[in-house]
Amino acid sequence: MKKDTIILGIETSCDETAASVVKNGREIMSNVVASQIESHKRFGGVVPEIASRHHVEQITLVLEQAITEADVTWEDIDAIAVTEGPGLVGALLVGVNAAKALAFAKKKPLVGVHHIAGHIYANRLEHEFVFPMLALIVSGGHTELVLMKEHGDYELIGETRDDAAGEAYDKVARMLKLPYPGGPQIDRLAAKGEETIEFPRAWLEADSYDFSFSGLKSAVINKIHNAKQRDLTLSAEDIAASFQASVVEVLTEKTYRAAKEYNVNQVIVAGGVAANTGLRKSLEKRFSGEDFPLYIPPIQLCTDNAAMIAAAGTISFEKGHRSLLDLNANPSLILS
Ligand code: KG4
Ligand code: ZN
């Protein structure tokens, strides 16, 4: 009988210090996330230097907790998977160095993982992949459509030309004086508002799967400024609902069109913005009645965690990929 593959995952690319143990790329044995959101809130966004310091403080505790909760020994662990990029370099370095130290001390193979591959593989913790598969990745740093024909094979078919979807959410939230991270705040307000303002939709060229959110962000900012100058009060709920309607419509339509053109057998959604209730509803509605499934992971697997890194790392490990002990953090790592 084939032995189980047990991988320890480590994620420190942004403001979450996370470690997790995953069995066979699909079964979460532990998933520990120490969030730093409270520390960054008063600055209105992630402060890289503060993020690195918190990772240093938390990483050992989080790793110990992940191993204790999984109830495994070092003997059981086959390899250590770590996010090598993209992300904040100082933050990434903490995870990469912890992983290298453990790999050296415990004589375990080391596997570097792309953060977006992790977001995609968060879905495999819930449902097995069926190829060809289309992944919509929407996070604070990324907005991408990725076509996968087999495990570990990523073809980028569309990406943002400027701001990421989550970045647009966070910037608009800041204009509305909402606390960081702004995405969930806008989502909450949007649910109470009406789409009373017609904001632009950036469809770009007819055959393009690329995205652009900076024009929309400027349109929202202009609307707020103009109202202020004329002493008018706009409802924050309606601005949120109108902004969200624009983001959600473009994401939904481009994903749907790509799914049809590439004749996929499955569509998955990943990244922090996949937690958005408006986007989840819109995609579910658009894809209902299709003969292939749409999967969106539960919210705790949409935002940054290490189970997703262990899940993606399992595939790399099984394919024989190994990183050396000179592995470095790469803030602009390409998904390949
Ligand atoms: O994937 P993630 O946790 O970190 C990155 O890799 O970037 O995504 C964080 C992003 C932030 O921009 C946050 O505002 C956004 O995801 N986000 C949301 C929601 N929850 C988190 N955006 C819209 N609606 C939400 N409910
Ligand atoms: Zn992320």
Structure description:
Helix 2 (48-70) runs parallel beside helix 3. This protein is 42% helix and 18% strand. The radius of gyration is 20 Å and the shape is globular. It is α/β, with parallel strands linked by helices. The longest helix is centred in the last third of the chain and has 26 residues, at 236-261. It folds into 2 domains: 6-121 and 302-318, Nucleotidyltransferase, domain 5, CATH 3.30.420; 131-296, Nucleotidyltransferase, domain 5. A hairpin with a 6-residue loop joins strand 7 and strand 8 (155-159). 51% of the residues are buried. 5'-O-[(R)-(carboxyoxy)(hydroxy)phosphoryl]adenosine (KG4) binds at residues 14, 139-141, 166, 169-170, 181-184, 187, 271-273, 275-276, 303-304.
In short:
This protein is an alpha/beta fold and 336 residues long. The protein has eleven helices and ten strands.
